[in-house]
Amino acid sequence: MTGTFTFVHAADVHLDSPLGGLAKRDKAFSGLALNATRRALANVVDLAIAEGAAFVVVAGDLYDGTWKDQSTGQFAVSQFARLSRAGIRVAIAFGNHDAESRITRHLTMPEGVFGFSNRKCETVLFEDLGVALHGRSYKDVATLENIAAEYCPPVTGMFNLAVLHTALEGHPDHARYAPCSVGELVASGHDYWALGHVHDASIRSEHPHIVYPGNTQGRNVRETGVKGAMVVRVEEGVVRSVEHRACDEVRWARPEFDGRQASDMHELLSGIGGVLQEAIAGAGDRPTAVRLHVKTSGGLQNKLLADPDWFNAEVGARAMTVSESLWIERVKVESSEDAATRGLPPELIELLNGALADPDCLRAVEDAVAPLVGKMPAGTIDADLAPLLAAASARDGNSLLAAAKRAVEASLSVDA
């Protein structure tokens, strides 16, 4: 019979991934954001030690891709060495961002750190705990087959924990890698599925537990709210509790303010100051980057739209009076030309805008589109397509996505 133990389930650390958007434009924020993913991993280690965890599971994307230098790997080794010295073991399944085909450098990990094979599912036994961990890493970035279907069967008489990097049935913000269904995982007989890949924390099933911890650090304005890891307590082979704990260092927020009743700029800025105060308080006073959405009307709206740089500066100045830890990533003033009025779904506009601030999306678009350009017959390239193809040839993801956004707006908009 298994004993009583605690483990920490983390995923999607994306070590040394740059935080999108604001970090490129604001030197002060860039300094804070530079090592945020490293500090988040250190916070996961602190959490495991503080909770007396027996082991830590990392369900994919420990790294964000091929290292720029050895310091990325060295930092991971240093943090896992802290766990090793505390007698805490680690099991890692590598995902699409740190698949074998993408990571070209490796450092020897400390004793007690196990990396799952990318050839087939393998099982690691912690016999002193009565735990069997099953998992498989990605060999290639685009792992499109259902690898869960070939996972090792449960070990009789042990607590069986399966580690998998997957989008399950699919997710609008993530590629459909290692697709499978909740029903399949439920039927597998394992006691806990430690998932990764989706950056939002969620419990998809409790019998057995199928859990996403989300990523440990939000990386752009689409990844708002608390980010961290799961602390899981097991008693006699039964999961007794699953708690999400914050490990992030920097927060992102997208507050909205309805200023249509504001009579003047003073009243508008006063109301904006209130929602900014709520944003920083909700982040536990962590450094917070904000994309503010403001609704206005009439002459005040015209004034803001006529000089957006001035209004951005006004909002930035108000943010500094609220907190030294608050930065304005962008101010979006809703106008009569807003996408919703023209007929574009607001969710689509938000997704397209977010893509422009997401380095992963830019890189994926560049990698996917550039090889196709040379295969297009010359006769298919007209004047409208030329700027788009030029951006693709130059692997200019920003221009490519901006052009795609304009094309989507033109094709989906309706006449007023």
Give structural notes.
With 416 residues, the chain is α/β, with parallel strands linked by helices. It has three domains: 242 residues, 4-Layer Sandwich (Purple Acid Phosphatase, chain A, domain 2); 86 residues, D-tyrosyl-trna(Tyr) Deacylase, Chain: A (3-Layer(bba) Sandwich); 64 residues, no CATH class. The chain is built from 13 helices and 16 strands. The chain has a six-stranded mixed β-sheet with strand order 4-3-2-1-11-12, with helices on one face. The chain has a six-stranded mixed β-sheet with strand order 5-6-7-8-10-9. The chain is elongated, with a radius of gyration of 24 Å.
Largest sheet: 6 strands, mixed
- Output the CATH homologous superfamily of the largest domain: Metallo-dependent phosphatases
- The count of helical stretches stands at 13
What are the secondary-structure elements, in order, as H or E? EHHHEHEEEEEHEEEEEEEHEHHEHHHHH
Q: Report, as a whole number of angstroms, the end-to-end distance.
A: 69 Å
CATH uppermost class of the largest domain = Alpha Beta
Q: What Rg is obtained from the alpha carbons, in whole angstroms?
A: 24 Å
- Helical coverage, percent range: 25-40%
CATH architecture of the largest domain: 4-Layer Sandwich
Strand content: 15-25%
Structural class: alpha/beta
Low-pLDDT regions = 339-343, 378-384
Please state how the strands of the largest beta sheet are arranged side by side.
4-3-2-1-11-12
Keywords: Hydrolase
Organism: Sphingopyxis alaskensis (strain DSM 13593 / LMG 18877 / RB2256) (Sphingomonas alaskensis)
Pfam family, one: Metallophos
Domain Calcineurin-like phosphoesterase: 6-199
